[in-house]
Amino acid sequence: MTNSTPLVRIRGLTKIFGGQRALDGVDLTIMPGEVHGLLGENGSGKSTLIKVLSGFHTPDGGTLEVAGRDVPLPLLPGQHRSLGFDFVHQDLGLVPSLSVTENLMLGEIASSRKVAYSWRAARERAAAMFARYDVDIDPDATVERIRPVDRAMLAIVRAVESIRAGAAAEGEAGANMLVLDEPTVFLPKQEVGQLFSLVRRITSDGSSVLFVSHDLDEVREITDRVTVLRDGRTSGTAVTKEISGRELVTMIIGRELAEHPHDAHAATTVGRDVVLSVRNLSHGPLQDVSFDLHEGEVLGFAGLVGSGYEEVVYSLFGASPGATGTISSGERTIDIASLTPRRAMSLGMALVPGDRKNSGSVATLSLGENMNLTVLDRYFRGWRLRHGTMRDNVRQLVTEFDVRPAVPDLEYGSFSGGNQQKALMAKWQQTNPKVLLLHEPTQGVDVGARQQIFDMIRGSTATSATICASSEYEQLETICDRVGIFVRGRLVTFVTGADITKARIADLCHGQASAPVPAP
Amino acid sequence: MNDHTGPVNEKRGADMTTARKDAETPVDAGPPVTESTSSTAAEAAEPSEKAARRRPTGRLEAMALPLTWLAVIVVFSILETDTFFTSANAASILASQAVLVVVTLGLIVPLIAGDFDLSIGSVVGMSALVIAILNVQHGWNIWAAVVVALLAGIVVGLINGMLTVLLGIDSLIVTLGMSTLLAGVALWISGANTITGVDQTLVDVVISYRLFGIPMEFYYAIIFALVLWYVFAFTPLGQRLLVVGRNREVARLSGMRVSTLRIGALVTSAFVAALGGVLIAGTSGSAGPTTGLDLLLPAFAAAFLGSTTIKPGRFNPWGTVIAVYFLVTGITGLQLLGLQSFVQNIFYGGALILAVSFSQIIRRRRMKQGF
């Protein structure tokens, strides 16, 4: 492997977004026949790198060699096919309501010039393909009915076949690279192995796989070599067998980890009243999550993509049906399955969702209309809504929460991300919540507003307890009294006090430190 | 008015709605985005204060339709001083379209809440027929017949609402089916005959009594517009319906009873359509198998045209009233000029397409200003 020409060699790749370097001289070399891992935190540049390879982004610098030949950048959209790459993204790009065969032949149908299309022949070819890859999928099944892992494998087989067809058309074989972008995130743990067998079969004939993932264990299991990105730079490349998990984490977060003593439980929260007890919460990936939230506490939740850490806030607010378990607050114990957002609000909860655009706000309504949604009844007096008083309320809130420009009648969508988020914080703070639930509270928010939102969260501890689910460990380090770590749907441990560091959280999320079982 | 068959109207309604669906119906919220790339962060950080300071709506835009209406009145008054510019004609225009005003006002309730009701025309017909059959053929007291007609409207609305909301079927499909179903029932129970001779009491209350020379039904329509205006401008309910129509997920996560509100909106439109049927029965003293079916397209045309004025970008009661009368004034004027009844179809159909195009353009421009 080492003495052959690299299949793909990227050198000095740079991409600048609005003055920020998303990629800053990234090098990546992929050899024929290897599974190459690409690791890095959110925002480290993985997605940008892949989008350069798919022709979506135009890089600002850098070179690309494919099988020893220089390929001018940027790539045109679709050009990756003639170079012999294809991509399988997290969402897989399947049409759930169509059959397996139909999905498999989608590209062929789109480009076919034939008047009549033989489904019988297509079905037979599908069966033959699955047999070749030793995959057991029914070609006639509807995609939404098959197992998640079968869906992922279907998408992979389809991509590999598309690469082969492309290579055959170009008259050359071998320049095959499949990019798997977080393929295992939605898969049950026990099914991941099947996907890995498929990956190995694909590489057995000299094709390469670029395996993008958050999950250290998976990367260590399946990859031959691994490249780590950090802040848009190549943090390092290593042969997977020769590097420990701990060393990988260090490469990912860029700091040597000190050994942490296992923390005694919740030094800062001992003695405070419990405002909310959650018991046996299960939903989606979450299994049997139990914890107590204390008065005035800011409790952070962290985990890798797919660990379910962010589901807790939605489940507690009754926002995603299907959750089971109980919550108790004071004397009352309530079945989580019976919660609706309305009920949760009456229990004193407030949720600022992570998807501001689709679940948090209505862009085409005014700032004031968005902010007053939760308190309309307060302003219905003497048989009419008091618009004047409502506007005064909004004016006061936007001053207090520093939303700019402070014009209640402007459309919400015309405000910047930071101001939108501050307005949403204000919308929910005025309901005087006892429990404030936040998911990614500073996503798409500029640096200044970020700090203000941190101050708001810390400032609200006098009146409410907060749960903040976030993928930004630094943010958790800044604002939290305690951070719960989720690994594969389980709340495995808490870090408290001075132990809450970005490095420590990352370490635990990647499952690289032995974790004590938490007392609830 | 012309007699269209129901399905023709409905097909037009369906074509037009695709444009609106893109813009208006709530977008399903995807899974929360967890990976924030530096690109989105950088874009979001860019201050848009300049864009934000711009006035969101132009005053001229809001007043364009009323002014055009005025211009149309002036032009026709000059062209046809003897026939158009008379108090009798004014009274006739105002009263003859009262049913359309009422039905369109009812229609904007589900439209605001993000659902379509294509069954309103058939419900008008069903209600008028129920009154005629019970009153004329079975000798019921007229008010008892009216109550039954209104109850029937509520039942239809409930069925529409439940199927749409509880089973999650597109309201377009449910009400389209309901519309055709009711048209069939109307044909059946009427024996394809027009039933005449509805109690004079109802006729008196609807058109015979006049105030300032204008039949009462005009005032009923205006009173109803006032009620709707009150609900949408001055109650939490109106505000909630608006949010449900714009984004169901936001409404739900803000603690609103989204399902109840949507069902309520569809019940309202059906109930109001039944009221329209009462007015029709009172206006003509009769009801036939195709009564009301020709109201569907004008109602949609007026509702969408109305959403481009007064409060551009939102369905609103006064815009609706103005839109109805603008359309009718134009049609009446052209017919007095000697154009035949085909002008009506051209006018309503054209108005609907133009209105939807305008509202789409307004929306696009705002989006550009905003982001």
Explain what you see.
The complex is a heterodimer of chains A (520) and B (371). With 520 residues, chain A is of the alpha/beta class. In chain A, 33% of the residues lie in helices and 25% in strands. In chain A, strands 6-7-8-3-9-10 form a six-stranded mixed β-sheet, with helices on both faces. In chain A, a hairpin with a 2-residue loop joins strand 4 (61-66) and strand 5 (69-71). In chain B, helix 8 packs antiparallel against helix 9 and helix 11 crosses helix 12 (236-246). In chain B, 51% of the residues are buried. Chain B is mostly helical. Chain B has helices at residues 6-24, 38-45, 49-53, 59-79, 87-96, 98-112, 120-137, 142-166, 171-190, 200-208, 216-234, 236-246, 248-253, 258-284, 296-306, 317-336, 342-370, and strands at 195-196, 210-211, 214-215, 286-287. Classes of the chains: A alpha/beta (520), B mainly alpha (371). At the A-B interface, helix 11, helix 12 and strand 18 of A face helix 2, helix 3, helix 11, helix 12 and helix 13 of B.
Question: In short, what is this structure?
Answer:
The complex is a heterodimer of chains A (520) and B (371). By secondary structure, chain A is α/β, with parallel strands linked by helices. Chain A has helices spanning 46-53, 79-83, 100-104, 106-111, 119-132, 148-170, 189-203, 216-222, 245-253, 311-316, 341-346, 356-360, 367-372, 387-400, 417-429, 447-459, 473-479, 502-509, and strands at residues 8-17, 20-30, 35-39, 61-66, 69-71, 85-88, 177-181, 208-212, 225-230, 233-239, 274-283, 286-294, 298-303, 324-329, 332-335, 349-352, 380-381, 384-385, 435-439, 465-469, 482-487, 490-496.
